[in-house]
Amino acid sequence: MRFLFKFLYKKVLFAIALLTLYGCKLMTPLPEKKPLQTPRTFLERMDSASIGNMQISTFFTDTNLVALIDTALQRNQDIAMAFQRIELARADLWDREAALLPSVSAEASGGIRRYGEYTQEGVGNYDTNFSDNINPDQRMTNPLPEYFLGARSSWEVDIWGKLRTRRKSALLRFMASEKARQLVVTNIVAEIARLYYELLTLDNELEIIERNRLLQKEAVETIVIQKEAGRANELAVRQFTAQLFNTQTRAIRIEQQIMEDENRINLLLGRFTQPIKRGAPILEQEWPDKIGVGIPAQMLRRRPDVQQAELELRAYEADLQSARLAFLPSLTITPYVGFNAFRSSVLFNPASLAFGLVGGLTAPIINRKPLKAGQRRAQAQATEALYNYNKTVLTAYQETALNLRTLDNMQKIALLKEIETTALQQGVSISNDLFLAGYATYLEVITAQKSVLEAELERTTIQQRRFQALVSLYRSLGGGWE
Question: Membrane-spanning regions, if any (predicted)?
């Protein structure tokens, strides 16, 4: 018997060794795919400080805009949903952590079984009942009840680190969910700022149109008087009148756009429609003294989408490692302890106390395709996550570089447009004087008025684009979520 035991023991150890070696063969390192390396600077520009490090209340000097953002951070529905996604990731993390610990469950069970008279159990139980070594409580009936009251446990010992790797994956995804919330926040902050500056622009355009409407109304009154005096014809009256109605139509369109933008802001703020309080006009809004962008490495450390993509990449790499570790043998220990009897009257008798311990190594041998499929799936997901990270880094760098160049160009255009607008405003005054003196036609007056209107509106739009490019640069540098 001892010889047989030693023989079986050696055979089991040999089988375990073969399974372990075969699993280790699958653990050979995979070819490493490296992420992109960003340039050292943005468009050969390097600043020690980046506006992305500035707090929201510091970067935005308009107190009304800051108040709107504060309200959105407290009541926005997208942010609230992002918090719930964090809780889902936290629950998954708890589930993976629990897998590292033994599971213990209480059990109260009962059953009944009838043994056939021509079976080993039936013959043995029947014969046992005639033994002088048992008392009446130990005599077995047929059918035979079975009662158990106690606790059972199961514990997979994490020999190779498979469960720890799964926990690491869940932890990385939990951290990625927090970055996803930060990404939602920074996008909402940027969208509120964009709509706010658009509202200021529309207000300024409405003021410009109203001022021009009054001038055009005076022009209509003047041309009517000149027609009555014989110095103008009906065509001139119609032209000036049509221009006035066109300006009034534009005013109504702007009022409609203002209402739509206010509704969008209120939706982001999680409240029903109400007026949006505004600060100084768009042309009088304060501009930062210095716009620093830092270096790309700082941007990568601050942008939530880049950090989220990196964490998800590491999580998928952990999933791949776990899928490869699944080929190795797993050790499971299943102990139990409790009261076990086939008579309820003696269930709580100290003699009914039973306990046991079973441990076993299991490893897949036949039909390993599901594990191989899981490994290939995890490898494809990890590779896709790497490409997504590279794409996110490219997008982040290009967004920053584009917004930086847009700011520079818009500043140049704004200076030229201011000079142009001043010249055209002077031209309107001159054309009116020449028309009254008979040295200019009404068409020249209409053209001058139309040109100055378009120039003033365009100047306002350029200022809006400057602020929107500034907000986009702030967001692209990782600002707006703290």
Answer: none
